[in-house]
Predict the 3D structure of the following.
Amino acid sequence: MSNEPLDLDALTETMRELYDGEGLHWMEKLLHTHVGGPVTALFTQVEIIQRALDRKPEMVPEEVASLKDNVRLASDNIRKIVRALAAATRPPDEE
């Protein structure tokens, strides 16, 4: 697993070489909806938990449980997208 940030320019160039505009638009919508949204919600939940630690500590267990559920959802979405991309790159007879 890499924690290195992606090089946006290099990634954009590679994607333009490999995919057509329609495919890129579809992938952008997919990732925005099923990865970007949940990850943004995770960040918001972490902020809520940080504030609750001082102001309303009784909220923390419920917020942590919700955070775990949302991490699981985001991870599942990413895993499904990666599996679908991998399956789509294989010839149909290999599935």
Observations:
- The mean pLDDT is 87.
- The first helix runs from residue 8 to 18.
- The helical segments are 8-18, 21-55, 60-89.
- Residues 33-94 form one domain.
